[in-house]
Amino acid sequence: MGENYDPLFPADLFTMSERASGYIGLHILGIIVMIFLFFGVFHFLYLPSFTEILLRCRMRFDTGGAILLAIARSTPEFFFSIMGLFFAYSDIGVGTIIGSSAVNILFASAAFIGQPRHCSWCTHLRNFIFYLIAISLLILFCMDYSIVWWEALILILLYVVYIVFTVFETKLFRCAHNAEIDEAISAELRPIDQINAEPEDQSRNLGVQRHLESWLSKKSRYITIPLITISLASMFLIVYLLTWWGTLVGETFGAPPEIVGSIALSIPVSLIACLSVLSRGGKQLAVHTAMGSNIFLATICNSLPWFINTIFITGNVFLSSSVGCTVTHLPVMYLLVTISVLCARKPVSIVLCVIVSIFSLIFYALLVFYTYAIIECPI
Predict the structure, then answer these.
(1) Of 77, 14, 85, 32, the residue nearest 251 (C-alpha)
(2) What is the model's pTM?
(3) Nearest CA to 26 among 40, 14, 8?
(4) Alpha-carbon gap, residue 213 to 207, rounded angstroms
């Protein structure tokens, strides 16, 4: 990315030849351990704190999912973007964001399988239009493989417009809001202080998760912000280690940073985040969150670090050609999911998930082909 700088990571204990002879297995083991630690922090501490805020503020669940939980779900990718730009000096963060976008799209289609189409057409149309605008601008800005400050600022302002539009959507356009869906989600997404409502004699048989939530229930009003702070610090450290060790694994096996980020790092981290939202709020809230997360990924996750870098540090941010090429295929995947869901007059079948899964495999294959120059970039 741009000029060649030495990554801001500690010197590895092993040389390249030692890693190639087998010691790289320790780094891979470390990545696996960090992914499990990330699951614990995100699922048991970070996400419950945000769902608590969502319920306490009495936000509509389509709005809260598309904005509040989408930001929470996209936090790891934002940290990866920071690590890639300011620490690794590579496209590993951009690759993680691209891979996470593909996972979000696949997850949104899978969540609809066997479920009636409850989300209003306004919700899908709003998300698709903003996502299409964001991706179109991103593709346009990436055509010269560099980002200047005003391009990053436009993407940031686009997300601000998205937030305002989402909050006032029903008033501006009188889009139908399904209150029954909010009630159904609310039944699944109970406040923390109501989670441990079971009799005391049954609580002894509860698992670690329920006991942790029981403890949170007594302190939920007072520790939400401290929990978020601790979780953010923990995830930042975890992402730092994942980026460091992922970079070493990529160097050892000859894999470019964008491949490591989009496949090895983004897939497990994104699946953990998506499934955590699904387990706490059900399919409807998970879909709202996945759709909102894609817009956050396309606007803020890259553009905010880019803006800071271009204004205060090195000037323009330079990107690899494979990044711009791969981004062009994301709107097609999103359009496929949106049209299929909107046209469904009955529960969405597994055919949709199969189609999107095939397209996802093609998407990752094209990323590899563009990166290794097997296929020439069309832009």
Answers:
(1) 14
(2) 0.86
(3) 14
(4) 10
